[in-house]
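Narrative of accomplishments. A recurring question from our advisory board has been how the design workflow behaves on a single, concrete structure rather than in aggregate. To address it, we present the structure tokens for one chain from the evaluation set, followed by the sequence designed for it. No filtering or post-editing was applied between the two.
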């Protein structure tokens, strides 16, 4: 499973980083979430799905 962020849509609330800091960081300068691990470790897939569902602007995009 791969994950990316649509940076045009991200509104920078940092929720993905709070839900799964192993995969999502936060860029304080750009005030946006960032993907730290494009290829998601299997044990973190559930959290990454939660982060995607919890993103208010649907900017967390998962490729199965
Ligand atoms: S949860 Fe969505 S809007 Fe919030 S920082 Fe992550 S990608 Fe951006």
């Amino acid at each position: 499973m791969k994950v990316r962020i649509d940076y045009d849509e991200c509104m920078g609330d940092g929720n993905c980083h709070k839900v799964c800091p192993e995969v999502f960081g936060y860029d304080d300068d750009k005030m946006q979430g960032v993907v730290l691990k494009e290829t998601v470790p299997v044990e973190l897939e559930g959290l990454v799905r939660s982060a995607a569902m919890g993103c208010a602007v649907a900017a967390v995009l998962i490729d199965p």
